Amino acid sequence: LDAWTPADVAALVTARLGDAPPDALLDALAAAAADRPGLIDGLLAYWHDAGALYDAATRPPRPRTGTGPLVILPTTGWAFDPAAATDSGRRDPWSALWAGRLAALPADARAVAQALAVAHEAGALPLMAIAEVTHLPNAAMQAALDDLGADGLLDHAADGLRLVPGPPAGLLAAGLAGDAATRMATDLARAVVGRGPWLPHRADMPDGLMPDLDLPTPAMITAAGLALRGDDDDLAANLATQAARRALELLALDDAQRLAD
Hints:
Elements: H1 6-17, H2 23-35, H3 40-50, E1 53-55, E2 78-80, H4 82-85, H5 93-103, H6 107-118, H7 127-134, H8 138-150, E3 154-157, E4 160-163, H9 168-174, H10 180-193, H11 217-229, H12 233-249, H13 253-260
Helix pairs in contact: 1-2, 3-5, 6-7, 6-8, 6-9, 7-10, 10-11, 11-12, 12-13
């Protein structure tokens, strides 16, 4: 969804609450409205359940705790207590919201999302690489992408598919058991560059390096980032060398430094 203006957010929240929302609530929702307005309903429900958003006429404000700034809460209408929303020990609301949404994903959509999560820091994934690693047929793959798109998880980049920024990548990767994420990173790296006779073991090459790969630079950098996270040291060394050289040629110095390290 496109970014919403403060007036858009205020109108939605007013409609949901049936009354004018407190300014503190609108301030707390500002980050959500900037890029994920679809999460606003979930965040309102989360804060209401947590006791941070409440009808002031039904209960007095809780006693002040902590050392943060004093917030004068209303005694009528809706009230929002920022301290209650950010209590130490309370789960980060964004992670809590995302965890619930991820748990409800169909199995195929979750498999695709986990592949994207493993590649999140490396870069966008080509669709064919995702299909090779998840082993999903075309119809199932399209249904999975539709599910992820409908749930606001999918970002269509110019060079492939990504997860949206935020907690989903970490939550999904954490859900992979044991060394599954490491193995998947290697499988995805090989899927991005392709499986062919030109991808030999490094020791079989006269100069210790595989031949230059005819890949677009973004795909090369993604493959190298995945291989560096994976469990094939030879593949990682070869791809990182080529990707760092490509990045330097394009003056992409941050990528070049990351790959060289």
